[in-house]
């Protein structure tokens, strides 16, 4: 994962080679200045660019000409009763991680490049988007949250929180209470989690941690498709909002 001084963000996920299947890298770039969202895969060598509205134009409902990608930005369509919805991202290869949903925090420090994670060829984007605390808890039950205070990971200040979800007996076919805990250490200056630990009796324990942080300016080529890739562009246009 990388961010530059223009607030462009890049997420790259590489799936390791398995048997006769080669490694596959999927990349997603978001440019808030131009509105471009570009995704490409080493498997197809095709880059897909969705041009979104920016600035004062970014309100109401928009869609690409073929209707495959739609967005409801509001509040210009508040009378439709449709809540604002984010842009639906381009389809990615099976098993590829989705882009990080939350924007990176504003910061006056240098651009950042972040990588790491548990297992071979799993990058920091997996870390930041994989825990249930960041994306909302999908499990029913009583939820309590605890502030763990401040700490540092690799010299970066982080703030910790623990979420405990207790599912009562009978809620999911269980005869005993099920207790799930999620601990997340967020770096406010980076806008992502540097460590997350999930402990669920149904799924086991998962510990993910970013293993390297580079505060130097990222290479501009990280935000562009590789040379020789085919580029397909679709520009979103304003459309009527539907109920």
List the defining traits of the structure above.
243 residues, single chain, twelve-stranded mixed β-sheet, 2 helices, mainly beta, three-stranded antiparallel β-sheet
pLDDT < 50 stretches = 77-137
- Portion of residues within helices: under 10%
Strand content: 35-45%
Structural class: mainly beta
What string, H for helix and E for strand, traces the elements in order? EEEEEEEEHHEEEEEEE
Mean pLDDT: 76
Number of strands: 15
What strand line-up does the widest sheet have? 9-10-11-12-13-8-1-2-3-4-5-14
Shape annotation: globular
Largest sheet: 12 strands, mixed
Number of domains: 2
End-to-end separation in angstroms reads 37 Å
- How many helices? The count is 2
C-alpha Rg (nearest Å): 20 Å
Q: Mind explaining what this structure looks like?
A:
There is one protein chain. About 25% of the residues have low confidence. With 243 residues, this protein is mainly beta. It is globular. Helix content is 4%, strand content 42%. Strand 4 and strand 5 form a beta hairpin. The chain folds into two domains: 121 residues, no CATH class; 104 residues. It has a twelve-stranded mixed sheet. Strands 7-6-15 form a three-stranded antiparallel sheet, with no helix packed on it.
Quick summary of this structure?
With 243 residues, this protein is mostly beta strands.
């Amino acid at each position: 994962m990388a961010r530059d001084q223009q607030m462009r963000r890049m997420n790259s996920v590489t799936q390791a080679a398995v048997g006769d299947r080669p490694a596959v890298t999927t990349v997603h770039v978001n440019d808030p200045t131009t509105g471009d969202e570009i995704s490409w895969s080493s498997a197809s060598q095709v880059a897909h660019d969705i041009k979104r509205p920016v600035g004062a134009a970014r309100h109401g409902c928009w869609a690409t000409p073929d209707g495959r990608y739609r967005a409801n930005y509001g509040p210009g369509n508040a009378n439709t009763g449709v809540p604002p919805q984010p842009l639906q991202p381009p389809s990615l290869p099976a098993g590829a991680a989705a882009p990080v949903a939350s924007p990176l925090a504003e910061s006056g420090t240098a651009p950042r490049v972040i990588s790491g994670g548990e297992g071979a060829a799993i990058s920091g984007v997996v870390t930041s988007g994989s825990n249930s605390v960041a994306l909302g808890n999908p499990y029913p039950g009583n939820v309590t949250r605890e502030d763990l205070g401040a700490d540092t990971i690799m010299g970066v200040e982080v703030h910790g929180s623990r979420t405990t979800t207790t599912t009562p007996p009978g809620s999911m076919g269980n005869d005993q209470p099920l207790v799930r805990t999620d601990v997340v250490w967020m770096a406010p200056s980076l806008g992502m989690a540097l460590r997350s630990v999930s402990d669920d009796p149904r799924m086991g324990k998962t510990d993910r941690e970013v293993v390297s942080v580079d505060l130097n300016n990222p290479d501009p080529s990280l935000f562009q498709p590789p040379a020789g890739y085919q580029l397909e562009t679709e520009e979103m246009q304003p459309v009527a909002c539907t109920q």
